Structures are given as C-alpha cells and as structure tokens.
Amino acid sequence: MELVIKYNGKDWVVENELMTVSAATLEELDIEVGRLMRQKGLVGKGEKKEVYMFCNNSIMIPEWMRPYAQHYFNRILEVEG
C-alpha cells in the first residue's frame, strides 16, 4: 500500500484513496495506520503488508531545495494482521 505523508504544522498526516490518518507523533501515526488497516480488512489475520509512505516534497521542502532532497522523508511500515 502507498500513502503520501506530510506534516501540517501540528500533526503528521498520511493519505491515499482508501484512508486518511493523522497523529501528533510518528509512533502514533504508525499505530493508527495499522489499526485502520486491520479494521478495514486491508490486512488479514496472520498476514504482513508493507506500507510505503512517500513524502509530499511540495509541502515540506522549499522549492530551491527539492532537487537535492528527493528522498527526504520516505518511510516503510510493516503491518501485521
């Protein structure tokens, strides 16, 4: 699963066409993503799925710095059902 991650000045937010999740810390964000995936049946019992979180550079990085920071804050989360 792929999600876009951004920071809105208060919370971390990840979203795609299936979900939007926000939390104050990255640890809380990971927990909420896993909980919501299990709740929606996106990961089954005994299953493991990787969640790729790609940074929205257009929001988080100044334009002049973007060519030098292509992978500024990408993350991979493994969710177990």
Characterise this structure.
The chain is of the alpha+beta class. It has a five-stranded mixed sheet. The longest helix has 14 residues. It is elongated and about 45 Å long. The model has no long low-confidence stretch (mean pLDDT 89).
First CA to last CA: what distance? 14 Å
Output the helix-strand order.
EEEHEHE
Which consecutive residue ranges, at least 5 long each, have pLDDT under 50? none
For the largest beta sheet, what order do the strands appear in spatially? Answer: 3-2-1-4-5
Helix content: 10-25%
Shape: elongated
Oligomer: single chain
Q: Figure out the total of helices.
A: 2
Strand proportion, as a percent range, falls in 25-35%
Mean pLDDT across all residues, rounded? 89
From the alpha-carbon coordinates, what is the Rg to the nearest angstrom? 13 Å
**How many strand elements?**
5
Give the structural class. alpha+beta
- Could you give a short account of the major beta sheet? 5 strands, mixed
Q: What would you say about this model in short?
A:
The chain is of the alpha+beta class and 81 residues long.
Topology readout:
Layout: E1 2-7, E2 12-15, E3 20-23, H1 26-39, E4 48-55, H2 57-60, E5 75-80
Task: List key phrases describing it.
81 residues, alpha+beta, 22% helix
